[in-house]
Write a sequence for this structure.
């Protein structure tokens, strides 16, 4: 019999980076788990890790971000069961008065791990038995990519539109809908990628509470030429609760990041374009654009006859004289490319029918922003 493995901690770690071996076997997958006051969810989360059907060498790397409950004790209590399943354990943390944030904890958990691939796991979620195996196989087929999966949201009915979007957008839309308000098109709790790609993109932002470290990393990955892929099976039970870190990120923070990325990646390549929505959201996008990109807006288009009859939108906040006036026209009377500022899944299919009637192709003729 092999001798039992010891619990590894940050104090007895050897240098990391995917090269360490466990009992003669290089670790293939590190499960990266930041943790803060997660005690009530950990048993279910760790039991699911124990039940993975992946046959390669795995480790669990946990960083405790100043928990004030018994989270670390719970993880340590699972050591023998995990090691008996040939899953080595690395755990460290800090006991400062305040947590340093999700980005910091993810970076620490990653840096102390040694697997060639990284499987990010939130302590309040539950992975299905085939998650690591299927995402590992997908990573081999899609190197330099962030791999996601479909999810089951609990409690059932939570964030219904968002969950439907996660599970139903196509592989092409994983890229074309990167500007929408939902955030990364493969959500962070489902991410799986190679260590080499993670290191190329760079670490998570460590700004702490209120910083969308997942969206910042996602956009940087796309800037680096990274791919996005999804295993089209439900591999994660994705828990909704009021203490989730995502609630600390404001809508305005996300809006600004999306506008900047839209201008950088898309609008900078266009000579002119139309904003599809002459209402509040379309006008807000226009006002947030740089002066250069504002001048590229040839029109707003809409289906609302009242807006169309007004004939134009006056940019009252402009310091230009005369103030810019942008035409407002019927959507049938303009031409692509379009930035669509109408919320997805909110018009009972009318938006999609209108786009189809013009024979427009997403990712070529239009991109969704809302």
């Amino acid at each position: 019999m092999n001798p039992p493995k010891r619990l590894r901690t940050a104090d007895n770690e050897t240098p990391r980076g995917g090269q360490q071996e466990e009992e003669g076997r290089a670790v293939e997958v590190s499960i990266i788990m930041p943790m803060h006051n997660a005690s009530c969810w950990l048993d279910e989360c760790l039991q699911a890790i124990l039940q993975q059907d992946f046959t390669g060498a795995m480790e669990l790397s946990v960083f405790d971000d100043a928990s004030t409950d018994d989270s670390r004790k719970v993880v340590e209590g699972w050591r023998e069961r995990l090691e008996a399943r040939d899953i080595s354990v690395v755990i460290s943390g800090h006991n400062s008065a305040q947590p340093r944030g999700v980005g910091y904890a993810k970076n620490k958990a990653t840096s102390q791990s040694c697997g060639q691939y990284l499987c990010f796991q939130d302590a309040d979620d539950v992975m299905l038995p085939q998650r690591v195996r299927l995402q590992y196989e997908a990573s081999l087929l899609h190197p330099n990519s962030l791999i996601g999966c479909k999810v089951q949201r609990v409690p059932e009915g939570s964030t219904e539109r968002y969950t439907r979007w996660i599970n139903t957008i196509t592989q092409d839309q994983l890229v074309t809908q990167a500007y929408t308000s939902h955030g990364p098109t493969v959500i962070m709790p489902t991410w799986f990628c190679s260590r080499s790609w993670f290191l190329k993109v760079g670490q998570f932002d460590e700004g702490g509470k209120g910083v969308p470290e997942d969206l910042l990393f996602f956009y940087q990955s796309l800037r680096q030429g990274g791919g996005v892929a999804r295993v089209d099976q439900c591999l994660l039970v994705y828990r909704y609760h009021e203490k989730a870190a995502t609630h600390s990120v404001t809508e305005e923070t996300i809006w600004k990041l999306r506008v900047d990325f839209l201008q950088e990646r898309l609008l900078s390549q266009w000579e002119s374009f139309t904003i599809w929505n002459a209402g509040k959201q379309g006008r807000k996008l226009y006002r947030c654009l740089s002066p250069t990109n504002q001048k590229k807006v040839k029109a707003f288009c809409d289906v609302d006859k009242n807006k169309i009859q007004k004939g134009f939108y006056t940019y009252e906040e402009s310091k230009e004289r005369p103030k810019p006036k942008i035409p407002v026209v019927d959507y049938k009377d303009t031409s692509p490319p379009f930035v669509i500022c109408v919320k997805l899944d909110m018009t009972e299919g009318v938006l999609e029918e209108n786009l189809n009637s013009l024979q427009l192709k997403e990712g070529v003729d239009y991109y969704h922003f809302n």
